[in-house]
Amino acid sequence: MDHYDIISGNFQATMQSIAMSVDDLAGPLSRAADLMSSALLQDRKLLCCGEGADAALAMLFTSSLLGHFERERPALPALCLAADGASLTAISKGGLHDIFSRQVRALGQAGDVLLCIDSAPEPGRAVQRAMQAAAERGLGVVSLLRDADNSTTEGTDIGVSATHRHQVVEIFTMAIHCLCEIIDQNLFGPQHQET
């Protein structure tokens, strides 16, 4: 069975979504990376949360900062609130809606930045509560959402418009890579290419 049409259609639709997103995302991504860089330069940390596939993206972001993205450099303080299964299950006994907000209240300090990732058409209650907790604690908030109009708090909103959720997740992945690269450049200068 030949699946070329399905594969080709998916690739082309995603490439079109990406091309149409650049102008809308460049400004918010730049502002978000500058906010995060400023926090890191002030010895603050970055927290990140998301559910399901978005939790995997949160781990991609924090692991790229803790490890390295494209170059060797010191580890940067970043914490994925979706990565600790034991804590998540302990917190969830009180209800799933507070799995991130409870951690934000315990671990977040004024000047830290919370990155919330949510590719669903409407942000989940756990992510909304995390954003509210961050605002209450004096954290900066960056929200990577399917549509910036879905944000419930003031902060830097990065809204992605795409027809299908998998396209949103693919654009989110590119956005996370851009954030990591800009943060690295802001903190450590341009990367010198070897010839």
How would you sum up the global shape?
globular
Distance between the termini: 45 Å
Q: What's the order of the H and E elements?
A: HEHEHHEHEEH
Q: Approximately what portion of the residues adopt beta-strand conformation? A: 5-15%
**Stretches where pLDDT falls below 50 for ≥5 residues?**
none
Relative helix content? 40-55%
**How many DSSP helices?**
6
**Radius of gyration over C-alpha positions, nearest whole angstrom:** 17 Å
Structural class of the helices, strands and pairings?
alpha/beta
Read across the widest sheet, the strand sequence of neighbours is: 2-1-3-4-5
DSSP strand tally: 5
Q: Which whole number gives the mean pLDDT?
A: 91
Main sheet: strands, sense, barrel: 5 strands, parallel
What layout of secondary structure does this protein have?
Layout: H1 4-41, E1 46-49, H2 53-66, E2 78-80, H3 85-92, H4 101-107, E3 113-118, H5 125-137, E4 140-145, E5 156-159, H6 165-188
Parallel strand pairs: 1-2, 1-3, 3-4, 4-5
Helix pairs in contact: 1-6, 2-6, 4-5
Q: How would you describe this protein?
A:
This protein has helices spanning 4-41, 53-66, 85-92, 101-107, 125-137, 165-188, and strands at 46-49, 78-80, 113-118, 140-145, 156-159. Strands 2-1-3-4-5 form a five-stranded parallel β-sheet, with helices on both faces. The mean pLDDT is 91. It is an alpha/beta fold. It contains six helices and five strands; from the N terminus they run αβαβααβαββα.
